[in-house]
Description:
Chain B: Pathway: Carbohydrate biosynthesis; gluconeogenesis. Chain B: This is L-serine dehydratase. The complex is a heterodimer. In chain A, the strands form two sheets. Chain A has a six-stranded mixed β-sheet with strand order 3-2-4-5-6-7. A four-stranded antiparallel β-sheet of chain A has the order 9-10-8-11, sandwiched between helices. Chain A folds into two domains: 8-142, CATH 3.30.1330.90; 148-218, ACT domain (Alpha-Beta Plaits), CATH 3.30.70.260. Helix content of chain A is 29%, strand content 35%. By secondary structure, chain A is α+β, with helices and mostly antiparallel strands. Chain B has one domain (7-290): 2-methylcitrate dehydratase PrpD, CATH 1.10.4100. In chain B, 64% of the residues lie in helices and 1% in strands. Chain B has helices at residues 7-17, 21-33, 37-60, 73-83, 90-107, 123-130, 132-135, 139-159, 164-167, 169-187, 192-204, 222-241, 250-263, 280-290, and one strand spanning 111-113. Chains A and B meet through strand 1, helix 1, helix 2 and strand 5 of A and helix 2, helix 3, helix 5, strand 1 and helix 8 of B.
Amino acid sequence: xxxxxxxxxxxxxxxxxxxxxxxxxxxxxxxxxxxxxxxxxxxxxxxxxxxxxxxxxxxxxxxxxxxxxxxxxxxxxxxxxxxxxxxxxxxxxxxxxxxxxxxxxxxxxxxxxxxxxxxxxxxxxxxxxxxxxxxxxxxxxxxxxxxxxxxxxxxxxxxxxxxxxxxxxxxxxxxxxxxxxxxxxxxxxxxxxxxxxxxxxxxxxxxxxxxxxxxxxxxx
Amino acid sequence: xxxxxxxxxxxxxxxxxxxxxxxxxxxxxxxxxxxxxxxxxxxxxxxxxxxxxxxxxxxxxxxxxxxxxxxxxxxxxxxxxxxxxxxxxxxxxxxxxxxxxxxxxxxxxxxxxxxxxxxxxxxxxxxxxxxxxxxxxxxxxxxxxxxxxxxxxxxxxxxxxxxxxxxxxxxxxxxxxxxxxxxxxxxxxxxxxxxxxxxxxxxxxxxxxxxxxxxxxxxxxxxxxxxxxxxxxxxxxxxxxxxxxxxxxxxxxxxxxxxxxxxxxxxxxxxxxxxxxxxxxxxxxxxxxxxxxxxxxx
Lengths: 220, 298
């Protein structure tokens, strides 16, 4: 079921005018920012479908930027997000795309800083709810509504078992898990939605396992 | 664990346990999230307070959106009601005024609570605060109203859609209208089945409603569609309380709404390209708002 709780329906408390085009957009931006783990130096924001056609009227642009600045959906600074981005030395470019996408409310976000980059695709499915459907070229399905651990690893036997063993040791339960790889034996991505927030020692332990390249997390 | 996926199941659980629908929703919420009842109630209280503030702001302050297209109509209607010459019921019009007021605050990038979306945020609180003087609900009953609204919205969202881009305005204001009608029945002392009937009657009358916002803004015609939704919700609730039933069961109305949304042209699903948005005046307003010649439909 896409909608799990009553607060997906009654809520969120947010800055108007649109739950899908404003609040949902803030949330997608915030997931990107969380995974990037710092304010990026530059951001390319690509709007598709209804997002491309109506982003100005809905404040979808300032909403995504607000998310990239780590704001919540009810943060009044969203209105002036272009200004605040400049203050934070975040260079933003907005692009309108014509390509048809499976969902009408689709945005692709590319983040850069000196040392790293990140690219994700998010969709806003209504009422402020979102899904992340692509991350750095990997297909996935991530709601951002639960704490989640993302592990980039080499596609090798035992890698998944090793990660889940560490989670078991820390008594962390996995609610939903997906594994996606580009090619057999190449880079792969594990996404685990878990029932509670995870702390730094657990992530460090995961990072030291064989074949693990990068570990990041999203908190509820 | 999720206890209901359909309205029929929701009514069945309520009737077999002898609990109102709001209680079924709260119980499921505790089960699904593992949170204590107090935490869930507190969270809903924050939503209720946000709604109260937004509606109050809209009927007392001079709210105006950035585009200048909307603002002030909720306040205007309140003043008209106060003159005492209104033709329709003051309760219904009071609900209409607060529904518009809430959406005017939303259009002005003010703080609101989505119910189920921001574009349809006026209907549920509008109805609740509109009937407040007549039905005198306690805070607990007001929270129950929101949980019952949420229970019906939960079924729609999981079986159809609450997104205008996916299903048109019927999915937003239509859903909100059905939710408010069902919740009002419970608040007025009706049965769970009567709530389902009210929802079905309300949603049937919203089927096919397109999402055609002028200039792509959540303003024209959204504010006035929230007005119609609030008024229809009260009528549907009264009809259900009178014992009138829907020939088509609620779940089938929801399924019909979903299929209509699927076959609705993209120009009428929140793209700002068809319907009222494409009228000469709609286009002129769009050009005025953005100060540029805007591209025409593909």
